[in-house]
Amino acid sequence: MLKHENSQLAIKRIKERFRKESRCSRIQNMLDLVSNPYRFKIICVLAEGTFSVAEIVELVEGKPSNISQQLKILTLSGYLKKEREGKQIYYSLNSSYIRELFDFLHKLKIE
Question: pTM to 2 decimals?
Fold first, then answer.
């Protein structure tokens, strides 16, 4: 009987988790979005701070047109914010949970 009670509590907890803003769906969408290698690298770079487009292109080592396209996708999805200073556009992460996720991923010891 104890196992059944524990499983019922677990089921209740899981259902509650799914109800909260469809959390699993949001996480899945974010992981799908960063499955692109350029977008993943861009977020890794921006987890370190705010950078201009030129700096991001240099750090990610991609073609400017590819990087710009990926920056647009990440911005439209709400994960990045951009600010203009004169002719320069600077990008930064718009969400603390993305920074936390990438901080966590960097701490993993994957061999």
Answer: 0.71
